[in-house]
Amino acid sequence: MGDEHDDVARFRQRLGLPGLIDVHTHFMPERVLRKVWAYFDSAGPLTGLEWPIAYRHEEAERLAVLRSFGVLRFTSMLYPHKPGMAAWLNDWAAGFAARTPDCLHTATFFPEPDAGRYVREAVEAGARVFKAHLQVGAYDPNDPLLDPVWGLLAEAGIPVVTHCGSGPAPGKHTGPGPIGRVLARHPRLRLIVAHMGMPEYADFLTLAETYPEVRLDTTMAFTDFVEELSPFPASERGRLAALGDRILLGTDFPNIPYPYVHQLHALEGLGLGDDWLRAVCHDNAKALFGV
Q1: Residue 136 CA: distances (Å) to CA of 110, 153, 201, 216
Q2: What is the per-residue pLDDT across 174-206, written as a single tens digit (0 to 9) for each?
Q3: Does residue 162 contact residue 173 with C-beta atoms inside 8 Å?
Q4: Signed CA dihedral, 26, 28, 34, 36: sign only
Q5: Which of 19, 74, 188, 248 would be a feasible disulfide site paired with 25, CB 3.0-4.6 Å?
Q6: Distance CA 148, CA 146 (A)
Q7: pTM higher than 0.85 for the full model?
């Protein structure tokens, strides 16, 4: 861990960054996290891959590791897979944010009759970012039960990190089509496309070019692990460079099968320049969240 700490520090220092802002990290109730880890351990059907969890630590140690890397702000991405979970998860996340001031207060939702109510309550309680997982949740983002949710979040300007790409395995409601219809109705929605929208990278870059409030996070993209499965097209690097003010660092910590610093080196390896890296790893999220 010491060597990795030094590697991350060198990356930050070379760029003159005060630290990193990581918009895609997972903190959730322990019994939920243990189930997530068990899924990865079993090479579950969505991945079908050997996926060793690199940071399988207790919560306090995971926090200490992130902070030792110079991560100034991070999130507690959590998500329900069935009705009746989201409000409980939001209660936990509010408590976590209250005792973890460097965590951006995170919340979630699911298409159910009371979604509008508990999302409004989460916003009023100070939620700064939401997570939607269309693949695990297996729901249509255009479900009428979510109409009040998208409208509220668009009006409030609260970002929603959304797993809407079809990687690592397509779902019934993944891909640019379903979430694109949401954006057509709510063009001001601050959608953050998780994992750069892999594998439909080009299509999600088009959504970002179409809607000025759409952003993409780098979670696992460009790493050796993902490049073997869903390589980012070299022909799209120019568009990636042009959208440099709307790309945000995300990592999936702690649920990654490689060292944290590898995500940073993968971004550096794109060759898009130090200004692009500074924006992606710190400045863009600083501006978006006002931190």
Answers
A1: 11, 21, 20, 19
A2: 999 999 999 999 999 999 999 999 999 999 999
A3: no
A4: negative
A5: 74
A6: 6
A7: yes
